[in-house]
Amino acid sequence: MEPRVVLVVDDDKEIRDAIEIYLKQEGLAVLKAKDGLEALKTLESEEVHLIILDVMMPKLDGIAATFKIREHRNLPILMLSAKSEDSDKILGLHVGADDYLTKPFNPMELIARVKSLLRRYVTFGAYDGKPQTIDLRGLALNREGKEVSVNGETVKLTPIEYKIVELLMIHAGRVFSIQEIYERVWKEPGYNVENTVAVHIRKIREKIEFDPKNPRYLKVVWGIGYKMEK
After folding, report:
1. Mean of per-residue pLDDT scores for the chain
2. Whole-angstrom Cα distance, residue 101 to residue 79?
3. pLDDT tens-digit readout, 150-192
4. List of residues 6+ apart from 115 with CB closer than 8 A
5. What's the half-sphere exposure (Cβ side, CA atoms, 13 Å) at 172?
6. How far apart are CA 43 and CA 155, in angstroms?
7. Domains recognised in the chain with CATH numbers
8. What is the pTM of this model?
9. How far apart are CA 29 and CA 229, in angstroms?
10. Which candidate, 116, 103, 93, 130, places its Cα nearest to that of 19?
11. Going by C-beta distance under 8 Å and a sequence separation of 6 or more, which residues neighbour residue 103?
C-alpha cells in the first residue's frame, strides 16, 4: 500500500522540518507548505490524506485556510496553535478542524493524534454488519459513499460531523450522552468536552435542518445528550 500523505503547514521552517522527521519515522509521506495559500495550491495538485495546520501564519492563516479547504474537501485537519484559550480552540473546530493541539506539543502526542485521525478516516468504509444506507424521513446516509443528503440534496459535512451523524443515524432513537459521542467519534476519553461536541452539533444542524432552532432530526434530550429522531 502507498504511504499515507500528510501536508504540514507552518510558517516556521524548523517546526515543519521537525514534524516531517516525526512523521517519516512512522512511515508516512510528507508534503510541506509555509502558509495557507501555498497549502491550497498543494491540495490542487497532490493527493493528501491529512493536514497539520498552524493557526498563526502570514498571507492566509489557519482559520481562513480551513474555511477554504472545507468548501471542497473533507480530509481530516489537525490544527496547531501557540494559543491555549478555549475560544481559539472552539473557533478552529467551528470552521471545520477535526482536532486541536497546543504548542509546544509532545511529539508522541502529535503522532498519536495523527494516527487516530488517519485510522478513523482512511479506513472509513470498512463493512461492520450495519446498514449501508439509512433514510429517516428525507435525511439519508450512504455509508459506502460516506455521504449525507437531505431530500436528495447532498450535504457537505466534515469527517467529524459525518461520524457524529453516522453514529446517531445507525442508532436512531437512542440517546447518546455528550461524553459517549466524543469517545465513540474521537476515540479518546471524553473529559470536559461539552463545548467541542456542542460546536459540531450546531454545525450539523445548520447543514441538515430547515430550521436549526427547531430541529426535525437531531434532537437534544436535556440533561442527557442527543439523539437522531426516527
Report:
1. 87
2. 6
3. 999 999 999 999 999 999 998 888 899 999 999 889 888 878 8
4. 26
5. 16
6. 22
7. 5-122 (3.40.50.2300), 133-228 (1.10.10.10)
8. 0.58
9. 42
10. 103
11. 15, 80, 81, 82
CA distance 62 to 9: 9
Q: Is the pLDDT of residue 130 over 70?
A: no
Q: How does 160-181 read in b/e, with b if 16+ C-beta sit within 10 Å?
A: bbbbbbbbbbeeeeeebebbeb
Q: What is the pLDDT of residue 37?
A: 94
* Average pLDDT of the segment spanning 25-52: 92
**β-strand partners of 221:** 225
Interior CA angle at 102 toward 101 and 107, to 5°?
70
The residue whose grid cell reads 486541536 is 100
Give the long-range contacts of residues 168-172, CB within 8 A, separation 24 or more: 168/218, 168/226, 168/227, 168/228, 169/134, 169/136, 169/139, 169/141, 169/228, 170/130, 170/131, 170/134, 171/228, 172/134, 172/136, 172/227, 172/228, 172/229, 172/230
